[in-house]
Amino acid sequence: MTRRQLALFHLALITALSAEAVAAHAADAMPSDFVYLRDIDPSIEQDMRYAGDDNFTGDKVPGYEAAECVLVRQAAEALRKVQADLKPKHFTLRVYDCYRPTQAVDAFVAWAKASDDPAAKAAWYPRLDKSDLFPDYIAIRSGHSRGATLDVTLAPVGTPDTPAKGGSCIAPQASYAPDGSLAMGTTFDCFDTKANTETSDLTPSEIENRDLLRAAMQARGFKSYPFEWWHFTFEPEPYPDTYFDFPITPRSEGGKG
C-alpha cells in the first residue's frame, strides 16, 4: 500500500467512525439544544397525530411516547414569533408533527410497502395506488428527523380541535377543515396533488388561507415545501446533515425552556 493509499484509507476510516459517532449521538436522549414547544409557547395548539391512531397508518407510531412537539430551540423560538404575529388577527398555529425520530420514518416505509388497506386508501390517498406512495411521497429519510421541520396549520383562536376520522382528505371543505382549523383544500397528510402548495384545484378562501399561513411562516425564517402546504423548515438548519432517533418522551415537571 502506497503512502497515498494509506492516507486515503485512514481518512475513510475516520469518516466512517465519525458517521458512527453521529448516529450513536442521534440515538441518545434528547440533545440540550432541542426543546419542547410547550415550554417556549404553550399557546400554540398541538395535535400530534403520530402519538395516536388518527394518522394514515391507523396506529400510534414508534418513537412517539408522548404527544409533544419537540424542535431545535431556534425553530421553536421562531415559531413563537409567528404565533405573536398572528395573535392580532385572532388566529393560532396548530402543529401536527415536529421532530420525527428515524424509527418513525422506518415505520412509515414499512407501512408503505405493506399490503393495501381500502379504508386507508379512501381516507388518505383516494386517487393513488399504495404502490405509488414509496418513494415519491414516503422516503427513507425525512427532514423532520433533523429537528427544524414541522407540519402546521391555522385555526381561529378558541376553536375546538375535533377529531375527524374516516372522511376523504380531498373532500370539499366549507369555511373550516373537519378538525376545526381553517379550510386549506385538503386535510393534513393527504397524499394527493391537491395538497401541493400551489395548485389550481382550490377555492378562493382556501388559497387565501394557504397564503396567510405561508406568509406568516416565511416572515420568521421558515421555508415552505412545494408538495405539502403544511410542511415548513426553519433555515438555516442547525443540523442539516444529522438525522436523530431519540424518542419523544413526556416533559419533566418544570419543562426545559
Task: Describe this entry's structure for a reader.
The chain has 257 residues and is an alpha+beta fold. It folds into 2 domains: 1-30; 33-234, Muramoyl-pentapeptide Carboxypeptidase, domain 2. Helices cover 30% and strands 13% of the residues. It has 6 helices and 7 strands, in the order αβαββαβααβαββ. A 5-stranded mixed beta sheet has the order 2-4-5-7-6. Strand 6 and strand 7 (228-234) form a beta hairpin. The longest helix is centred in the N-terminal third of the chain and has 24 residues, at 3-26. The radius of gyration is 20 Å and the shape is globular. Mean pLDDT is 89; it is low at 3-25.
**Largest sheet report:** 5 strands, mixed
Q: How many helices?
A: 6
- CATH-defined fold name of the largest domain: Muramoyl-pentapeptide Carboxypeptidase, domain 2
CATH first level of the largest domain: Alpha Beta
Strand order of the largest sheet: 2-4-5-7-6
- Unreliable residue stretches: 3-25
What Rg is obtained from the alpha carbons, in whole angstroms? Answer: 20 Å
Estimate what percentage of residues fall within beta strands.
5-15%
CATH architectural grouping of the largest domain? 2-Layer Sandwich
Q: Specify the overall morphology.
A: globular
Structural class: alpha+beta
Distance between the termini: 54 Å
